[in-house]
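A.,

Following up on our hallway conversation. Structure tokens first:
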């Protein structure tokens, strides 16, 4: 696959870490995002961000992998409920589906992920959400906000994924999934 996401001649890659929104909800949100005119939506799996796009040396990927495996080992499965819309306007031209349940767990997981070799400052305080419209005209943002106001979905989160940006087709591709260990309570109920 061409240069496989290597940025410039310095051997750097663009990565991100996220919770995947499962089907059928992922496709419904991605189709809506495309319908609002976001031409980049086809290359962005529907997700809750844990680490925004971050450039790292290609040689650092083994350290990143070990760090993420340790982060996953420190967390347990949890439930996410998505309900209704929100917006970061006027600060940022973003409309999103809100997390009603799972916010605390996402914040704790984000803090674990964005540490060690992935420690970095954020432009804005972390707010878990699922983007449905980004940097679009006001009319499209207003439409997304109104049309998805009644959106609801619930699903278990059993891990997260590391993605790498492909400069060949400007799409985010999964590199590895990190599963959470089963909770002691969950193991006891299945015996």
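Then the amino acids I'd put at each of the 191 positions:
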């Amino acid at each position: 696959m061409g240069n496989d996401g290597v940025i410039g001649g310095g051997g750097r890659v663009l990565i991100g870490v996220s919770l995947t929104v499962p089907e059928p909800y992922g496709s419904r949100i991605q189709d809506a995002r495309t319908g609002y005119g976001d031409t980049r939506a086809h290359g962005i799996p529907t997700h809750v961000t844990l680490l925004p796009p971050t450039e790292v040396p290609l040689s650092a990927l083994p350290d990143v992998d070990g760090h993420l495996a340790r982060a996953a080992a420190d967390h347990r499965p949890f439930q996410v409920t998505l309900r209704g819309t929100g917006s970061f306007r006027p600060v940022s031209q973003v409309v999103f589906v809100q997390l009603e349940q799972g916010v605390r767990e996402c914040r704790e997981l984000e803090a674990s992920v964005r540490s060690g070799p992935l420690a970095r400052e954020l432009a804005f305080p972390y707010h878990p959400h699922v983007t449905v419209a980004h940097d679009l005209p006001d009319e499209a943002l207003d439409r997304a906000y109104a049309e998805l106001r009644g959106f609801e979905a619930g699903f278990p989160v059993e891990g997260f994924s590391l993605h790498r940006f492909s400069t060949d087709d400007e799409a985010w591709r999964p590199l590895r999934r990190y599963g959470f260990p089963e909770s002691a309570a969950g193991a006891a109920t299945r015996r």
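The chain has one domain: 6-180. Curious whether your intuition agrees with the design.

B.
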